[in-house]
Write a structure and sequence with these properties.
With 133 residues, this protein is mainly β. It has one domain: Jelly Rolls. It is built from one helix and eight strands; from the N terminus they run E-E-E-H-E-E-E-E-E. It starts with 16 loop residues before the first strand and ends with a strand.
Length: 133
Amino acid sequence: MSMSDEPNCNQTYGLGTSTSLRVDSRNVAFCITLSSKTDVTIQANTNVGCERWKTSGMADPVLSLFASPMDDMPMSQVLASNDDGGQADEGKNCNAALLSWTLDEGTYLVIVSAFDSCSYGNFELNVQGKLSN
C-alpha cells in the first residue's frame, strides 16, 4: 500500500457499535480508539446460511487491522486479518469474518474489503470490547 493509497480515519466506530454496511469496489475503512488495553472483537457478519449466500446480496467480507496512521508503524504492516473465520456452526453466518485481538491504548485502522469482485454486498459490522487484565 503506497502512502497515497492509505485510507484515513474519516469514520470512527466505538465499542458497542452494530451497524449495517455495504462493501463494493471501495473498501469500508474506519478507526477505533482505545483509552486502555482492551480485548476487541470485530465481526463482519452475513447472517445467512451458505445454501442461500450466493443469491442473498450479502458480501464475503475480509477484515484487516492496521496500526494507527499516527503510530510509528508503517501502514502496510497488517496486525491481523481474517476471511471466513466468523462462520458459525452449521454455516449460519456464511463467509463472515472475525477478529479477536488484545490491543493497547491507541487508534487502530480497520478495513473491510470484499474477497473478490464477485462477493460485493451487505454485511453487519459489530465492534465489541472489554478491558483487558
